[in-house]
Each structure stands twice: as C-alpha cells, then as structure tokens.
C-alpha cells in the first residue's frame, strides 16, 4: 500500500473515530490530515473530483440525519470527512497555483 493511500485511510478512520470521541483538537487533526492528503492528489481529473466531492459531501451529510438510530452518527462521520476533503481541496488549489507560477514544477 502506498503512502498516499495510507494517509487517506488514516484520514477516513480519524473522521469515523472523531465522530464518536470529540475533544478540542479534533478539527485540527482532521484539517492536518486533509492538508497532507491533498498534497498527494495528482492529475487534473483527480483535482476536479476532490473539488466536486467537497460540495457533494456537504449536502449529503445533512441528508442522512433523519435515518432512525444511526442518522446523527452518519451525519457526524460525513461532516468530519467533509472537513478532511475541504482541507485537501485547499492544498490542491495551493499546489495547482504553485505549479502555474513556479517554472519546472510538475504534478506527475
């Protein structure tokens, strides 16, 4: 398993765990994991996918709330993962900007 897949897996697991165990630095952990995950996103099609996913998960997380017994937990999990995706998208945007401004920098 490659490093980028491990980081994305850790981010997803952290989003699940932190939905049940909240403390003052939980959002910071998710943001850091998202920034690191975003660093490993390569290629224009994947960048577009990350940017689209952030909008879709934001709306989809709230739609799970009415499900009896598990809705609030699913909402918390996907909201946390939305934080990871938002931070990843920030890193993707920063890296895409840097690639356009710095000669010789390539995303491949």
Overview of this protein structure:
By secondary structure, the protein is an all-alpha fold. The chain has one domain (3-101). The chain contains 4 helices and no strands. The chain has helices spanning 3-20, 26-39, 44-63, 71-101.
Could you outline the blueprint of secondary structure elements for this entry?
Layout lengths: L2 H18 L5 H14 L4 H20 L7 H31 L7
Helix pairs in contact: 1-2, 1-4, 2-4, 3-4
Q: Could you give a short description of this structure?
A:
The chain is mainly α. It has helices at 3-20, 26-39, 44-63, 71-101.
Give the overall shape, derived from the CA principal axes.
elongated
Over the alpha carbons, how many angstroms does the gyration radius reach?
A: 15 Å
Order of helices and strands: HHHH
Number of domains: 1
Strand element count: 0
Helix fraction, binned, reads: over 70%
Q: Which spans have pLDDT < 50 for at least 5 consecutive residues?
A: none
Distance between the termini: 19 Å
Our count of helices gives 4
Mean pLDDT: 88
Please give the largest β-sheet.
none
Strand content: under 5%
Q: Which secondary-structure class do the elements indicate?
A: mainly alpha
